[in-house]
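Running this now, will post back.
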Amino acid sequence: MRRVSRFLDFVQGFTEYVLFFLVGAMVAIVFAQVIFRFVLRASLPWSEEASRYIMVWLSMLGAGIGLRRKGHIGVEALTMLFPPRLKRAVEVFGSLIAALFCGGLIFYGMRLLGVVSAQESPAMEISMALPYGALVVGGGLMLLYALESVALQLVGEGKAQ
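Update: finished.
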């Protein structure tokens, strides 16, 4: 289990670097668009589309990181009253539900990729598979992290908060 967690630590670190790069790219693109529009009186036709697609990737990759760090919103008022074993069972059940949802996200994301891969975006003229691919990649990350959470809870290494 430690090897898997170390591998997922590497994946998380790499994902965080990608997120850092994407935020920087989005800031640069939006800043350039503002300069072009208000200073040079011309606009970049692709900037809005690029920043929108970057935001999609940021959201999906960031959701995976949030899942791993247990940073998503949750209501713990009831589970705080549970004994530790019941609390662990509820956490495992919640992680399994999250894994099931992520599996559906991957499955339907792949089906959607088959439909949109032949389409091109209006301004940048790239395959629409690129922005929609965030569903599959983000869903895959979240699935891995949800399954890791289940495994850690079952072997007793998970944090019962």
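The chain has a mean pLDDT of 92. More later if anyone needs it.
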